[in-house]
Structure formats: C-alpha cells, structure tokens
C-alpha cells in the first residue's frame, strides 16, 4: 500500500532546543560570573556605604526617587542628577520607588555601587507609550494610539503576533486567509484608502521600519513582544511620511532589566480540527441531481418538464451504477481532513548588571494542518542587549534570527475533495488510492496528492534582522541616537508535481525552484531635545535623517520529464525538458528628513507639529519628493482646577489633529517600464524579440491622504473605567490607479495618478473593572467597536460637463466603496406557470433563475444590474471578559462583524448544478419541487445562467475567538520549588461562531487576484470571497505551562 504523508515528527525541534538551551546556559553563566566576585563577601554582614544613580525608562537620571532599606524607615531621596548614597548592611534589600513607576527591590550582596533603571507602572495613567522615534506619557499624547501589552498578546495561541491582537483594537480589522498553517492575515487600519496601491500598514520593529511588510511580522515570535502600539490618525503617522498612509504598528520586543537573572519557559500543545464542514451531497442525493439534469426533451428548452431518463442512460459509468446498487457513497472531505496539532516552546533568559542588561530567547513553533501535507515549522532566536559605557554613551542591539519551513500543500486536495463524484471508488482492493475514482477522466482522487512525495510545495525562509544603536547624551535633555538596521532574508520555494497528481494526470513529473535574496537596511540619525522652562513649559524637539534601501534578487527555473520522482525538485539537470528560466532584480531607496515639536503647558494644554520630507526612487523624475505635515492639539480638562479633585472624572482629554501621508506602494520600475521576451515570425523562422511588458508612466507621482481627527479619552471613578471615542475623515487624492485598457491597446492596464476616495468613521473603546477586590474576586470587561464608510469621489472618466462618471468596466462607482458587488438581483426561480414571462423577459424557461427588472421595461439587460452590497461591515469589534479569584483566572473573547456582503467563489465552484461533479446539498427546483432557492440542474450548462447571483451572502458573524482558564500557583508553593512563578492553563480558540453564511467560516479576507473578462478586460469580481481550494479554518483546544525561575 502506498504511504500517505504522515504527521511530521518533532526530531528537529529536539535538536534545535538542545543546542540553544546550551547557549542560554552559557549566557546565564557569563552573567553569573560577572557578579560572582561581587557576591563573594555576602556571608559577612557589615555596614557599608552604597552609592548609585537611579534612571528613568529612557536612561535619564531621575531626581526625587526614594531609596529605602526594606523593613526599616531608613531611606534617602535621589539628588538632581539621580544620585544617592545610603549606609546599608551587606545583605540588606534596597527598595527603589518613584510616583508613576513600579517599585524595585534589589539585594545589596556586598556591593558598593547599585544603579537602577526604573520601569513605568502600567497601572498609572501617564504610562509611557511608544509613539515613533521616541516615547511620550500617555496623558500627553495628542494622536490616536492604542496599546496592547504582552499579557493580551500571549493569551492567543498562534504563530502570528498580528492574529493575537485581532478584535482588541478599535478600528483595526484583521481577517484570516483560511486555515492553512503559516498563512498571514489581512490587516486594515481604519479601512481602505487606495484602489490599486497597497492598503497594508507599516510595521516598525524595535524602531526600524520593515521592508518586507506583513512577512516581517511572521518572523517574530509573539512571546518576544513587550508591546504593540497602533498609530491610527495622520498626526501620529505623518512622521513616517509615505510609509504611514495605512497606519503604523509599532512592535517593541522584550528587553533586559537590572536585577537577578530570570529564566522563563512557556509551552503549549493543542489539537486542531475544522470549525465547520459544508454539506455536500451524498451518493443518493447526487444521483437525484444527475437524473434531474438529464430529463428528456426535444430541445433543451423543453426538458424542464420532460420525463426522467432511464438510469442506464443517466449513469453511463458502470462504477456509478454499481455504487447505487450497493448503496455505496464516498465522503472525500472526511477522507482528506483529519485532526491536526500545534505546539510551541519558548525559553528566555533576562537580567543584567548595573551597566549591561540582556534578554535572550529561543522559540520553536510547529503546526500540523488538518490536511496531512500542510504544515508550518519555525525556529526563532533573539538577543536584545543594552550596555551603558558611561554617563554619555550607551549602545545596544536587537538581534533576531528565524528559520521557517512551510509545506503549502496542493490546492487540488480541497478542490477535488469537494468536486468528486460521491459514487466513485477512492481505493483499490489493496487499499491504494485509485487515481481516477470514476471513468469521466476529469476528477482526480484528492488522496493521490497526499501520497508521500507525490506533491511537494516547500517554502523555506531564513531571516537575520540585527538593528544596533548608539545613544550619546550630549547634554542634559539633549540626546543623539544612531540606528542601523540591516535586514537579510533568504526564501526558497521548491515545488514538485508527480506524474499522478491533478496537475500532470499521468504525464511526466515536473518541478520548479525559486530563490529569493533580499538585503535591505535602514540608517537613522535622531536628535532629541527635552527641557522644562519655569516648571511650566515642557518642550520636546525631534530631528531625523533617514535612508532606507532594498535590493532583491529572484532566480527561477522550471523543468519537466524528471526521470526519478524520488529526487523531487533537486538535481533538476537530469530532466529532459527545460522550461522557463527567469531572473529578476528589484531595487528601491527612500530618503527622508523629519522634524517634530512637542509642547505642553503644565501638562494641560498640549501641542505637536511635525513635517517630513520623503524622496522615493519609485516615482518619476521631478516628482520624487513630497512633504507631509502633521499637527495635533489636546486639552487635559481633568487637570483644570474645577476637575482635578473630582471623585467621578479622573481623566478627561480632548484631542484634535490634521495630517498628510503618502503612498508609493507600486512597482519600483513603474515609471520606466520593463522588457519581456516575445516570439515573432521573421519570414519562415521564429525569432526572439523584446517588448514592453507594461506601459511606463513618466509622470507618476504621490498618492496623498489628508486626515482630520477628533477624539476624547476619559477615565472615571479613579480610572476604574477608561476609554476613548474617535472620529476621523480621510480624503485620498491622486490615487495610484491601475486603470484597465481595451485589449486593442496591447496592454491590460496602466498606472496613473487619477481619482480620489474619502473614508469616515467612528471608534469607541472602553475598559472597566466591574468588580475590583484585590486578593478576592475580580471582573474586568473590555469592549471596542468601529464603523466606517468609504466612497470613491473622483474618477478619470468625464461627461460633457466635466463631471466624473462611473467606470463600470472596473466596477468603480462615484459615491460607492472601492469594492462593491455589481450584478443582477435574483428574486426567485421561474415557475411552471411563468413560461411566457420567462421567455419574453430573459429568454429562459421554468426552473431557471428569475431576475428583478430594475427599470421596469419588461426586459432584462445590462441596465438592470445594481450594486448589491459591499465588503465593508456596518460595524465590527470585540468583547473581552476576565474573571479572577484567588489564583484562578477565566477569560473569554468574542469578535463580531455585522453587515458586510460576501461574494463566494466557493459557491461558484461547488453549486454549479451541472450533474457531472458533486454539488452543495441545496434545494434545487424540479417540476415536483417548485422551490425558489436554486435552479433546476442542467447537464448542458456548466453553471446556471446568472449563477453568480447564487453566491452573494450576508457575511455577518459572532465568533468565540478565545476561552482560557488558568491557575497561578501560590508563592507558598513556588518558593519551595525555587521558582518565582508557575501557571497552568487550558485554552480554546475559534470554538464557536454564529453566521448565516453556510460554509467553512465567514471570516474571509480580500482577494489579491482580480478576475477579468478575457475579451473585454472588464473586472468580473474583486473584494471578499473564498475559493474552492480554501482550507477550512481550525478550532483548537490546548494545554499550556508558564514557569519562571
């Protein structure tokens, strides 16, 4: 019996973890040795003088901090330069404290010098948040910024840090791309702005803007993340200029702290399964459909009420007749879908001395999909190191290495599992898959794709990201920072298709290999100045010079007629047929200058202004540079005399802002055009020539978005309830538009700066401690909701008066969202008493789809098409509940979307009612079953007339995203085990959802590919949808452990 692809073992994980744990032990030993000499005299208890400096979170001296010997009233206060001196016993414990910061306890251990870096207390209102090129106190932020901490991120068991924040930030819409392991989600912040250019946000990791977009986040272990800050309004994102048009997500990884070395280990293991299975027809149901599709009639128009044909004429395949006689039916979905599993292991070591702090970790993640040849494996290693040379110089690095392997699997597995005739026979008498389960010669056995080595699509990515920095404290309040972030990425995709796969159908095997090498870097020089004048006026100035560059090389080769299938895509030179050989070089550079000024008066009246200049190599000469201003203001009303002592309103701040950002997310050579090889006739010979692959546009410039925002932040009952409300309005002009051209031009489209869009929306979020009882029962509720509208306000087509016209060919309409569904409206099925109406209105017969005559002229034409809906929801958001009692905690998180429409390619493929392939189990029309749900099956139509009208659905849903029950063991037990923290938990993800969309999952994302009519070039569909090859999303139950030594 042929071996089906087995579940992947964990051997590589064991060897990898063993190697890195040894490295971690070495790192631990190195820092232990550094302190060993200082601890050698700890057994002698005597009084000595301890001196040092207390620093704030930015490394600046902190005056006025308290230093107290634990258990006594003896203490001192730090001086103007953060310095202190105190007499303490060699084994004393010093407690360092300051308002707004978490207290720290450090054992003297005979040391004479102890320097301390204080940490912001997250429970305080004025916690420090990352805002881009610096930090600000939360209470002084005038832009719209949302922060998600490590605790919220780590609750979700996933390979993707982006998936971990889904539904937790108002205005951030994250949609999954099915259940294939290792797939990235689609992220939209405050909707879409662009029609043809990218709508993806900018990701900034440890201060370095990422070159590779969404892929960069896939390389980051979620458990390495300290915070994620989402910059949403243009005033906050304008400092990133052309990179910030679609919002910015700032990711800060965990760094070391002064103090004892801590070793942490976390792990989880979970079992996955499909969230929901679709209802396909069984053998008897399919037989009924096939009989109906083959009714007898003089013409096709007469068959709707003709007699049923004998089974011998309907089922011309003996296998079908045999299955009917035996009552045999095959559920191919059940054969290809299985339980999968997911596991994650993370070891981290952090700590440091007075001058050097570190945080290092290794991680291993492995997910075996619910289809056996689909899996994802990732190894990560990180070292964050900070070293203070002296009071002037500080250096550091954030070194990350990752290696991932994704077995993408064959799309034919799901496509064939859904389409195969259930009357077919999948196995022979030996239990081996039969390549063609029936004799139709079309549908192949999906199990053939799962035979070990039959189909391989392996994607390996190795990344080294190693930003370094140098801080120079020039003077008090004046600091120079240089950041350099090299980013190296190697990607290799190897694909092999054996002879007996859906691609080759018995023809010789073929293979292809694609290698991608990318080197990019970011160099930034930043000057920060902060000073307080007369204890009232706080001024901050930031100046930036930056350059970012990327060079990407791609090499690809294809071969066929491979002599030995066991070699897969290796040793391709042995193949007898050489296919396409291709190579590509893509380079771009972005140069930038930025200035920002922050001012506040007594922390009550806040102002910020910024200006950034960007020069992009992607754009045309004379249009490469543009300027992006941002301005915002705030009023902390709660700091006014009439509210400062209020017991009800503990915080109240108004915010307004205006900003401009740009977008240049197009091909770097769009302004020049690229050549492609083409064959042409030269006499009687076939000659090779070259032509432009697309039309260059020498005038291509910036797409610019201008946004006005207003918001309010509030805190009630001593901040027991906190929240925010925001409104924004964005106008995007000079759209980078991929405009469709007529086929006679020889090109499909051309990029131009034409058109504009407008987006408006509201966001609301609130978090409250419903019950707050330290040491007892606690209940916290978080809720966020967002809504927005989107419309096209200008297009290039004009009427005789110069007014913009709709572009029906591209399905762009003035006053409508970018992605709309423009089609006929189905109102039912023509019934037996509507023969004349069906014929006169649409040229149809009873049993076919009945359309609405929108203009009432009695005939269905193109003029009767309307906008049926859009993929934009009316609103979306999330609800979180967290309960705590003693050491137990229970949390559950719901995510919801309401009001968007789905255009389902899945139904196009699986509801064709053709009678040759399997079908969704729908209530189809017959003369004896006059339903209005689905039309009569017809073997002469590969899909029903106007069958697209069967594929529009309400995409609203409510989903239980996460459920976690955990227990934190008490210190009375952990201290006996010499550990500081021990937590066990059980968690469930995607456990349940409620939706009228009857397929695997209503959570679908934007389609990147557009379907165009081959003759007219018109776009047939775009936007949300799922294809027949989509892997079902997964639910998972997992158990986990977190322990810190």
TrEMBL record:
Keyword annotations from UniProtKB, A to Z: Cell outer membrane, Membrane, Receptor, Transmembrane, Transmembrane beta strand, Transport
InterPro entries reported for this sequence: Beta-barrel_TonB_sf, CarboxyPept-like_regulatory, Plug_dom, Plug_dom_sf, TonB-dep_OMP_SusC/RagA, TonB-dep_OMP_SusC/RagA_CS, TonB-dep_rcpt-like
Pfam families: CarbopepD_reg_2 (PF13715), Plug (PF07715)
Membrane topology: Multi-pass membrane protein
Subcellular location per the Swiss-Prot or TrEMBL entry: Cell outer membrane
Region of interest: Disordered: 928-948, 1004-1027
Domain TonB-dependent receptor plug: from-to ranges: 138-248
GO CC terms in record: cell outer membrane
SUPFAM superfamilies in alphabetical order: Carboxypeptidase regulatory domain-like (SSF49464), Porins (SSF56935)
Comp. bias (Basic and acidic residues): 1009-1023
Family from the record: Belongs to the TonB-dependent receptor family.
Protein name per its UniProtKB record: TonB-dependent receptor
Organism: Ulvibacterium marinum
């Amino acid at each position: 019996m042929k071996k089906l692809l087995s579940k992947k073992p964990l051997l590589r994980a064991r060897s990898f973890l063993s190697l890195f744990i040894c490295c971690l032990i070495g790192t631990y030993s190195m820092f232990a040795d550094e302190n060993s000499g200082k601890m050698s005299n700890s057994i002698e208890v005597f009084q000595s003088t301890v001196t040092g400096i207390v620093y704030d979170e930015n490394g600046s001296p902190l005056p006025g901090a308290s230093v107290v010997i634990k258990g006594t009233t003896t203490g001192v206060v730090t001086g103007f330069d953060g310095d202190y001196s105190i007499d303490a016993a060699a084994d004393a414990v010093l407690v360092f404290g300051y308002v707004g910061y978490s207290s720290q306890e450090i054992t003297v251990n005979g040391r004479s010098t102890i320097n301390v870096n204080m940490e912001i207390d997250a429970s305080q209102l004025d916690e420090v948040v990352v805002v881009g090129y610096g930090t600000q106190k939360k209470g002084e932020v005038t832009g719209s910024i949302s922060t998600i901490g490590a605790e919220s991120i780590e609750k979700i068991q996933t390979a993707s840090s982006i998936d971990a924040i889904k539904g937790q930030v108002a205005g951030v819409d994250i949609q999954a791309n099915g259940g294939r392991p290792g797939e990235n989600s689609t992220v939209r912040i405050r909707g879409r702005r662009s029609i043809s250019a990218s709508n993806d946000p900018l990701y900034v990791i440890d201060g370095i803007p990422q070159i590779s977009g969404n892929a960069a986040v896939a390389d980051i272990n979620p458990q390495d993340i300290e915070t994620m800050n989402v910059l949403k309004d243009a005033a906050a994102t304008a400092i990133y200029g052309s990179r910030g048009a679609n919002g910015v997500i700032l990711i800060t990884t965990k760094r070391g702290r002064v103090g004892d070395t801590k070793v942490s280990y976390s792990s989880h293991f979970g079992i996955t399964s499909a969230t929901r299975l679709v209802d396909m027809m069984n053998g008897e149901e399919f037989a009924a459909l096939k009989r109906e599709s083959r009714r007898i009639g003089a013409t096709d128009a007469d068959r709707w009420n003709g007699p049923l044909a004998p089974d011998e004429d309907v089922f011309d395949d003996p296998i079908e007749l045999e299955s009917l006689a035996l009552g045999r039916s095959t559920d191919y979905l059940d054969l290809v879908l299985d339980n999968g599993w997911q596991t994650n292991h993370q070891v981290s070591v952090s700590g440091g001395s007075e001058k050097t702090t570190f945080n290092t970790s290794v991680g291993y993640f492995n997910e075996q999909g619910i289809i056996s040849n689909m899996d994802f494996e990732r190894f990560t290693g990180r070292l964050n190191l900070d070293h203070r040379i002296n009071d002037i110089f500080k250096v550091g690095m954030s070194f990350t290495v990752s290696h991932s392997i994704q077995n993408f699997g064959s799309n034919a597995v799901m496509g064939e599992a859904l389409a195969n005739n259930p009357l077919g026979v999948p196995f022979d008498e030996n239990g081996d898959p039969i390549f063609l389960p029936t004799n139709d010669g079309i549908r192949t056995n999906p199990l053939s794709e799962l035979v070990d080595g039959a189909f391989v699509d392996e994607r390996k990515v190795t990344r080294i990201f190693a930003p370094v920095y140098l801080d120079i404290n020039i003077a008090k309040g004046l600091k120079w920072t240089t950041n350099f972030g090299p980013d190296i990425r190697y990607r290799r995709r190897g694909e092999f298709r054996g002879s007996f796969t859906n691609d080759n159908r018995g023809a010789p095997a073929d293979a292809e290999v694609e290698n991608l090498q990318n080197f990019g870097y970011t160099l930034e020089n930043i000057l920060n100045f902060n000073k307080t004048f007369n204890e009232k006026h706080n001024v901050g100035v930031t100046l930036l010079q930056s350059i970012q560059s990327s060079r990407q090389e791609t090499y690809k080769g294809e071969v066929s007629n491979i002599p030995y299938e066991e070699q897969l895509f290796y040793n391709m030179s042995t193949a007898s047929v050489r296919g396409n050989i291709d190579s590509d070089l893509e380079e771009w550079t972005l140069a930038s200058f930025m200035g920002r000024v922050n001012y506040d008066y007594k922390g009550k009246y806040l102002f910020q202004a910024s200006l950034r200049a960007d020069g992009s190599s992607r754009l045309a000469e004379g249009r490469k540079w543009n300027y992006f201003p941002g301005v915002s203001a705030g009023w902390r009303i709660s700091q006014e005399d009439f509210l400062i002592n209020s017991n009800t309103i503990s915080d109240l701040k108004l915010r307004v802002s205006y900003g401009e950002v740009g977008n240049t997310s197009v091909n770097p050579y769009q302004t020049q055009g690229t050549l492609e090889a083409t064959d042409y006739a030269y006499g009687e010979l076939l000659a090779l020539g070259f032509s432009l692959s697309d039309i260059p546009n020498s005038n291509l410039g910036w797409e610019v978005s201008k946004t006005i925002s207003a918001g309010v932040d509030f805190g009630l009952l001593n901040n027991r309830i906190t929240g925010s409300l925001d409104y924004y309005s964005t106008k995007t002009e000079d759209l980078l538009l991929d405009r469709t051209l007529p086929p006679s031009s020889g090109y499909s489209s051309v990029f131009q700066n034409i058109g504009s869009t407008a987006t408006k929306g509201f966001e609301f979020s609130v978090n409250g401690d419903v019950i707050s009882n330290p040491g007892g029962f606690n209940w916290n509720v978080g809720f966020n909701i967002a809504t927005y509208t989107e419309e096209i306000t200008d297009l290039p087509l004009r009427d005789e008066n110069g007014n913009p016209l709709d572009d029906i060919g591209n399905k762009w309409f003035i006053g409508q969202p970018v992605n709309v569904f423009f089609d006929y409206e189905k109102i039912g099925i023509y019934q037996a008493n509507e023969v004349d109406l069906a014929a006169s209105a649409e040229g149809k017969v009873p049993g076919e789809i009945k359309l609405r005559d929108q203009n009432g002229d009695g005939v269905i034409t193109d003029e009767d098409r309307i906008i049926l809906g859009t993929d934009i929801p009316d609103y979306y958001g999330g609800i979180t509940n967290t309960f705590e009692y003693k050491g137990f905690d229970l949390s559950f998180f719901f995510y919801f979307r309401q009001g968007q429409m789905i255009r389902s390619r899945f139904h196009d493929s699986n509801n064709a009612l053709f009678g040759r392939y399997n079908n969704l189990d729908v209530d189809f029309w017959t003369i004896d079953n006059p339903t209005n749900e689905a039309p009569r099956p017809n073997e002469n139509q590969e899909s029903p007339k106007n069958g697209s009208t069967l594929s529009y659905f309400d995409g609203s849903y409510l989903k239980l995203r996460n459920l976690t029950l955990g227990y934190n063991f008490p210190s009375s037990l952990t201290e006996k085990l010499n550990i500081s923290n021990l937590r066990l938990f059980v968690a469930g993800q995607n456990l349940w959802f409620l939706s009228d969309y009857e397929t695997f999952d209503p959570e679908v994302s934007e389609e990147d590919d557009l379907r165009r009519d081959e003759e007219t070039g018109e776009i047939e569909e775009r936007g949300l949808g799922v294809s027949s090859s989509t892997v079902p999303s997964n639910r998972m139950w997992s158990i986990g452990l977190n322990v810190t030594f």
